[in-house]
Each structure stands twice: as structure tokens, then as C-alpha cells.
Amino acid sequence: HREGLMESVLYADHVLKGVTIPEARIRAWYDEHRDELKSPERRRTSQILVGSLEEAAALRQRWVTGEAFAELAKAASRDPVSAAQGGDLGWITAAETPPEFAAVLSLPAGAVTMPIRSQLGWHLIQVTEIEPAAAESFAQAHDRIRERLFEEEKRARRAEWVRRLREVTPVTVDQRAIERFVASLERSGAAPPAHPVAPVHP
Hints:
Elements: H1 2-16, H2 23-32, E1 38-39, E2 42-50, H3 53-64, H4 69-76, H5 80-83, E3 88-93, E4 116-118, E5 121-131, E6 134-135, H6 138-165, H7 175-188
Antiparallel strand pairs: 1-6, 2-3, 2-5, 4-5
Helix pairs in contact: 1-6, 1-7, 2-6
């Protein structure tokens, strides 16, 4: 246990201390991976859910002749939650779209699918809005990139630290200061951050 505490102290002091990611490095990563940092296309959809193909086809025909989809949803849909909102289901991406509803991904805004069958019944889905895919700005991606680079830097430093521990040349440390620090941790019941590290074998 005492040896593990000492290893953790060494790890925190020699590996994690002073890890910072310069803004220039964050910007460089963003510029290099700009094509990967795109928010996907999103589509806002509404639905009418009914019990039979005939009913769905009749409602779609009423929409074709000019009746508002939202009003038809309020009057006829069996989904009470979306019906109260005029059929609105909110925004979805291609990754979030169930396979049986894939037709909505190729429709223009305002269009309505042909009747689609699911375990719940028969659906008519209208695409009400389309938000195109767009690249994330540097400000939007900044914190996520910094965290990614921070983790990469920690892994690299840990690997280098373990490599040095295995070399013949001993690591020069203030042994007396470490002993005092570990003793104070044991008295208080606290412990430094735990990290899986290689045993210290001078």
C-alpha cells in the first residue's frame, strides 16, 4: 500500500504536473481535422399514427388535396403526445432514424411519406424542416479538442515515464520529501489520484 502511494505521488509530480495544451496546438488540430468536425444534417419531422393502411392512405389524400398536415395529426393521430403538437416529433439525424422510416431522409421539406408500417400501426411522416450539415466553428469544437489533446499528452507522458523507470539510470527524487508527504496522507486517510503505473524498481 505504501509503495503504491509513493508511485502515485511520483506519477502526479513527474507526469501530470504542468500538462498544458497551447492554443496554437488546438488550432492546428482543428485546421487539420476540419472535415471531421461537421454536425450532421438534421430533419424535423411530424407524424400521423393510425391503425390501418386504408386510414393512412385516406389521410394522405386529404393532405394532397390541401388540408394541413398538423390539423390532420391533431384530429386523427393515435399518438396523443405528438398529436397535441400537430404531430411534431422534433429533430432527428440519419443515425437516429429507424430503418423503417429511412424514406424521410430523401424527402424535401414539406413532403409526406407514403404510409409506413411499424409495430405501432401505420405512419405518415412529414419533413417540416431541414438543417444542412455544417462544419463546427473553432469556438464550438475548442473545449472538446483541448480535452482530447490533454488525454493524448497524458498517455504519452505516462509511457515515457514508465520507459524511464525501466532504465538502469535511477530517477532522482527528493525521497525525504516524498516520505513526509506519504506519511501525511496516511495520517489524514487521503490518497493522491490513483493511476495504474508500473512498479518502481530502482
